[in-house]
Design goal:
- The protein is an all-alpha fold.
- Helices cover 85% and strands 0% of the residues.
- It contains 18 helices and no strands.
- The chain starts with a helix and ends in a 6-residue tail after the last helix.
Length: 437
């Protein structure tokens, strides 16, 4: 049993981690909103639509490697819980090695990635041209993005959420400044948004290297690297990375199908759905603040062999996530012209958004609980259940998305997305009790 005193201490620790994580996470969609607001107020909506289309490719590409952050967080937290600080540093260096290898592949095959991506995600000619300009600029930041995943994961695993906040503030703050410069001062439109994002990632990386040098002093590098190539450690790392990569690719496939299905329904629907998805993004980044705190604490509990606090931790994060998600959706639904008007002043788009905005309630309501469970399982490095849950959810989504395409109905497409979140929630929740028994 978890005593009332222990629960209070856990809540305080959770809040101490969650608040900086929320601020750090919220800065990401804020920068995205600035992208959308600046492009959405240009004379033509093709720039905004092109970036929306190209962003699917980057979501697919970068978040396919999101395991770099998630696995690093879980392994670091468990090593910290076991008071093995040399292992904490080894997790960092192994993660950076994997990130460097993947970044090299992306740089070498960037043209092929673009050709394949835009062949799959077809839009109108002007939209595709703007999207390609954005892609060609932003892809240059790929190495920095992957290194930053590892550094952020390592900081979160060490309960250094304030440092993660500083990194996020620097990266996203510079993105906003550079957006204005490239888009308005240099008149580079969608290409300018891509350049701004790429350069801001390198500035963020420079700050991360400074933090790494300051914190990574548990032991001399000679000792840290003495077991760097340990076979069992790499086997576990690749197993976790493999499961999480399959999970993330499946997730991004669902996003890609949703966006492509939106494009097939017309540019107006594509942009309106992109605006609504941005609300989901805002909500998810708030909720991710709780999930990141849960990753750290669940990993530390697991590393120290403390199972008694896991159930109360999961209950706490699920309640916090659900309440936050519903409040955010209600703010947008209650004041649609004001809230959605920040992203675009095209009345046709705002009218279309108004027809579908109520779908945010089931999507975010179910998604908030699923995201909370994601953070819990990531901290425990239980990647197998997460992979299976995502595959079931994507299969359900694809069936309904196919029906939406046949009927040419955007309501059915949003129903498919609601089902996707619901299946993720149910399949993960059924496996949770085994983790604390």
């Amino acid at each position: 049993m978890v005593t009332e005193t222990n629960q209070l201490a856990q809540r305080r620790r959770f809040v101490r981690l969650a608040i900086p994580n929320i601020f750090a996470a919220v800065l990401v969609p804020v920068a995205g909103l600035v992208d959308m607001a600046m492009l959405g107020h240009l004379d033509s909506i093709t720039h905004l639509a092109g970036v929306a289309l190209a962003s699917v490719l980057f979501d697919y590409l970068y978040w396919s490697f999101g395991f770099l952050r998630m696995v690093t967080t879980g392994l670091t937290a468990q090593s910290l819980g076991a008071n093995d600080f040399i292992a904490v540093d080894r997790v960092l260096w192994r993660g950076l090695f994997v990130a460097a290898s993947l970044a090299l592949l992306i740089v070498l095959f960037q043209s092929s990635i673009a050709d394949l991506g835009f062949w799959m995600l077809r839009g109108e000619a002007g939209v595709e041209f703007s999207g390609r300009e954005y892609f060609d600029a932003r892809i240059l930041g790929a190495p920095a993005v992957l290194f930053n995943y590892v550094l952020i994961g390592w900081l979160l695993g060490r309960e250094r959420s304030k440092d993660a906040l500083v990194l996020s503030a620097v990266g996203n703050g510079m993105n906003i400044v550079l957006d204005y410069w490239f888009i308005y001062e240099l008149n580079l439109a969608s290409a300018g948004a891509g350049w701004a994002t790429a350069l801001s990632q390198y500035i963020m990386l420079a700050m991360g290297i400074v933090m790494m040098a300051r914190l990574g002093k548990s032991a001399p590098l000679k000792i840290v690297f003495s077991e760097f190539w340990d076979r069992q450690a790499w086997k576990r790392l690749f197993g976790l990375n493999g499961d999480m990569m399959v999970r993330t690719i499946a997730l991004q496939t669902a996003f890609a199908v949703f966006t492509n299905g939106s494009a097939l329904l017309g540019t107006g629907i594509l942009v309106a759905n992109a605006v609504l998805l941005k609300v989901l993004s805002i909500a998810s980044f708030f909720i991710d603040g709780y999930a990141y705190a849960t990753e750290s604490l669940a990993g530390i509990y697991a590393g120290s062999g403390d199972k008694k606090n896991l159930k109360s931790l999961l209950t706490l994060t699920m309640w916090a996530s659900e309440i936050t998600g519903i409040i955010l959706v209600t703010a947008f639904v209650a004041f649609p012209n004001t809230m959605f008007g920040v992203m675009t002043d095209h009345q046709m788009i705002l009218d279309t958004v108004g027809q579908y905005m109520y779908w945010l309630y089931p999507v975010v309501g179910l998604g908030a609980l699923a995201y909370a469970l994601d953070g819990y399982f990531i901290g425990l490095t239980l990647s197998g259940p997460m992979r299976r849950s995502m595959l079931f959810a994507v299969a359900s989504f694809l069936l309904l998305a196919g029906l939406a395409a046949m009927l040419e109905n955007n309501h059915v497409l949003w129903a498919a997305w609601s089902a996707f979140m619901g299946v993720r929630l149910v399949t993960l929740w059924r496996q949770a009790p085994a983790t604390w028994s």
